[in-house]
Design a protein that fits this description.
By secondary structure, the chain is an alpha+beta fold. The protein has two domains: 71 residues, no CATH class; 53 residues, no CATH class. The protein contains three helices and ten strands, in the order ββββααβββββαβ. It has a six-stranded antiparallel sheet with strand order 1-2-3-4-6-5. The termini are far apart.
Length: 132
């Protein structure tokens, strides 16, 4: 029987950091205390890290922090397609919080050619549930 491997978080020092070894060279870390994640490829100079920097939102880049081993931690996005999503939301590192959105059924046609969902996104974003 295998057990979950929880360690002390290298970012927040909490005791609920889940460790998952993917293979010999990749290990994932996800802290349930601070909500941040990293892996052994998330180090400055690594190709994977550079690829992430090209696509991540500015807020996530601002919130990143490096631990003593050089791993860069960033906020986690949790997406349960049938339930919703939790994510970091804000305009800058000094003004952000965890937010959530509830999953709602959307027809495929809504995504095509700037359909309803695309036009309504700004209004929908105002209805985000803010978490304390």
């Amino acid at each position: 029987m295998s057990y979950d491997n929880l360690i002390k978080c290298e970012r927040c020092e909490g005791d609920a950091c889940y460790v998952q070894e993917v293979n010999e060279s990749i290990t994932n870390y996800m802290c349930y205390g601070c909500g941040f994640q990293t892996n052994t490829l998330m180090k400055k100079g690594e190709e994977f890290f550079e690829q992430q920097m090209e696509t991540l939102p500015d807020l996530y880049k601002e919130l990143m922090g490096e631990d003593d081993e050089g791993k860069v931690w960033m906020p986690t996005v949790i997406n349960l397609p049938s339930k919703g999503m939790v994510f970091a939301n804000g305009t800058k590192a000094s003004d952000w919080r965890w937010s959530s959105v509830k999953a709602v059924p959307v027809k495929k046609e809504s995504f095509m050619n700037g359909g309803w969902i695309c036009r309504q996104l700004p209004t929908m974003m105002k209805k985000i549930s803010w978490m304390p």
